[in-house]
Structures are given as structure tokens and as C-alpha cells.
Design goal:
Helix content: under 10%
Domain CENP-V/GFA: 4-111
Number of helices: 1
InterPro entries: CENP-V/GFA (IPR006913), Mss4-like_sf (IPR011057)
Protein name: GFA family protein
Number of strands: 10
Strand content: 35-45%
Order of helices and strands: EEEHEEEEEEE
CATH architecture: Beta Complex
Keywords: Lyase, Metal-binding, Zinc
Family: Belongs to the Gfa family.
Oligomer: single chain
């Protein structure tokens, strides 16, 4: 069972997770890259009922059935939710206060990766 907490850059949004991490991976999709201005985004998934979020969280509907949470003050990306997984929520591993040791299991959307980033791990690389 995970007991994790995290926050945005300014501290205006904080979250706590008390429950099992359902999955964790590196996402290479174009949408995540643009939302975070990063070549890859690393997230972990939990049950929504195991997560508490407080503060100045705003949402952006980045595509049909998807909303991305971000801090209204500093703009830090905080969460990802999709209608395809209505009982789950993703948080960004890099926003954790402690727990940067979350075990990553795979790469998602490998076919959308940037060609200039050299990834040399042995994790499964799916689409």
C-alpha cells in the first residue's frame, strides 16, 4: 500500500494517496509531451477513491473524455483523468514529496516518442 504525497511548484495544490499503485509508466504520447513540455512524462495510477487533492486545482479538457489537472497559480501539471478509466487517476511521479522510488513498469505510446531521446532500459515498450 502506498502512502504518498506531492505538491505543485508553488505549493498551492497538494495531494495525498493512500492505496495501491495500480500502474506506473513513462508516457511518450504527443499530448503528454505538450502538456508538460517534456520529451517523456512519468505517471503512476491509483484509484480515485484513494486520492485526496486540495488547493487551487484547475482542469483542462485536453481531448474528448480527458481532463488534466494543473495549479491555477503556478501552472504545474498535477493529474490526468480519462472517462476510459473512470475509477482511476494518474499523478506525475516528479511531483511527489518523497517516493521518487516508485517502480516504473513500462513505456506507453512508444511509437510517438521523440527520436532524439536515447532510452536504454529494458522496460516493455507498448503503444
Amino acid at each position: 500500500m502506498a502512502e504518498l504525497s506531492g505538491r505543485c511548484l508553488c505549493g498551492g495544490v497538494r495531494f495525498k494517496v493512500n492505496g495501491e499503485i495500480l500502474s506506473a509508466g513513462h508516457c511518450h504520447c504527443e499530448s503528454c509531451r505538450r502538456a508538460t513540455s517534456s520529451p517523456v512524462t512519468t505517471v503512476f495510477t491509483v484509484r480515485r477513491s484513494d486520492a485526496e487533492i486540495g488547493g487551487s486545482l484547475r482542469f483542462y479538457a485536453s481531448s474528448p473524455g480527458v481532463k488534466r489537472g494543473f495549479c491555477r497559480n503556478c501552472g504545474s501539471p498535477m493529474s490526468f483523468q480519462t472517462d476510459e478509466r473512470p475509477n482511476e487517476m494518474d499523478f506525475y511521479v516528479a511531483s511527489l514529496n518523497d517516493g521518487l522510488h516508485v517502480e516504473i513498469h513500462e513505456h506507453w505510446h512508444w511509437d510517438e516518442r521523440v527520436d532524439w531521446l536515447n532510452v536504454t532500459d529494458d522496460l516493455p515498450k507498448g503503444s
